[in-house]
Amino acid sequence: MSATRLLSIWFGAGLLKPAPGTWGSAVAVLLGVLIHRLGHFPLLALATVAVTILGFWAVGRELANRPGEDPSEIVIDEVAGQWLALCFPSAGFWFAGLDATNFPYPGWVAAFLFFRLFDIWKPWHVGRADRRGDATGVMTDDLWAGLYAGIATIIAAGLSHGLMRMM
Q1: Burial degree of 151 (CB within 10 A; 0-12, 13-18, 19+)
Q2: Residue 78 CA to its chain's centroid (Å)
Q3: What are the pLDDT digits (tens) for 77-112?
Q4: Which among 12, 80, 105, 147 is placed 20 to 30 Å from 155, CA to CA?
């Protein structure tokens, strides 16, 4: 198996059935939380940039002779988008001075749920990128979904914490 194939299917996560995208996102959350615990937000941000660059390269190679395809087993795009979504609560915890071992479940669960919502629903920029029908679109739609999910996670946390303080 080629390096681009192995990366594209995220070491086999994309071969899990049903719903390989959800499995890829779930594996990404587990690894993202581990990366956060090992090096907090800076390491997660660096890993996100690295997997995004690798993703554009690997998906570009894998789909070079397959225009218009977005095979379900390619999930490195979900990893990049999910890690981008996780960067938002991770950064919040880091800037709040919380210990790296502290990544409370509402943060990563919300990032996962919002990411899956935006990745499936494909609103606005997510859908536009998805309709490109090329390798760049495969990666970009999940990065947009990750950005939206990260913002939604922070808004939900602000509302939740704001409401809890009022009670």
Answers
A1: middle
A2: 5
A3: 999 999 999 999 999 999 999 999 888 889 999 999
A4: 80
What is this structure's pTM?
0.96
Cα 13-14-17 angle, rounded to 5 deg: 95
Query: How far is the C-alpha of 9 from the C-alpha of 26, rounded, in Å?
Result: 14
Question: What gap in Å lies between CA 98 and CA 29, rounded to an integer?
Answer: 19
